Each structure stands twice: as C-alpha cells, then as structure tokens.
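Workshop exercise sheet. Pairs work together: one partner reads the sequence aloud, the other fills in the structure field after running the prediction. Swap roles for the next sheet.
Pair: D.N. / O.F.
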Amino acid sequence: MSQNQSTSHNYKNPSKARHDLAKVEAQVTEGEKYYDEQGWEIAPPISDRECIYRCLENCEQLAGLDKKQVQRLMEDFKTKKTEKVTSEEYPPL
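Structure field:
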C-alpha cells in the first residue's frame, strides 16, 4: 500500500440501519384473488375485448399509425373497463 492510501474509510452503509416498517401497508385486494405459480398475488384476468381496447388506447398517439383509424377501432372495441384500470395511479400512455 502506498503512503497516500488508508486502510479504513468513513463510509457508513445506510442499509444496515434498522427501519420501523410498521406504518407500511400492503395492497388489499377486494373480491376474488388470483395467484401465480409461486404464490404471488396477480391482477385478475381481463376479457380479450378489453385487452384489445387497452392496446389501441396505448397506441392512439403512436407515430406511423392513422389516428382516425385507431380512434374508429377504439370505438368498435369500446367496453366497460374493469375496476383495476380505473384505480391505477398512472393513466395509459
């Protein structure tokens, strides 16, 4: 080791501190619950029609597509959204 290098440092790892996580709440799903093969809770399945509508809704402003055509298709596939969609924090892209 050279003279300028020290064998110790003053860095303190913040992950070693204990945090009180009692105030953290888990998401509570009402109604029927669905789980994946590892036991994690997943979103309930949606209909094919709603899946198509969500895809169209997300690509409405996409470059290279005719906006009027996409809006016409959205009108054809319009369906009642499930609660999961209306309760999401972020709107579709």
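Discussion prompt: The beta strands are 34-35, 41-42. What would you look at next?
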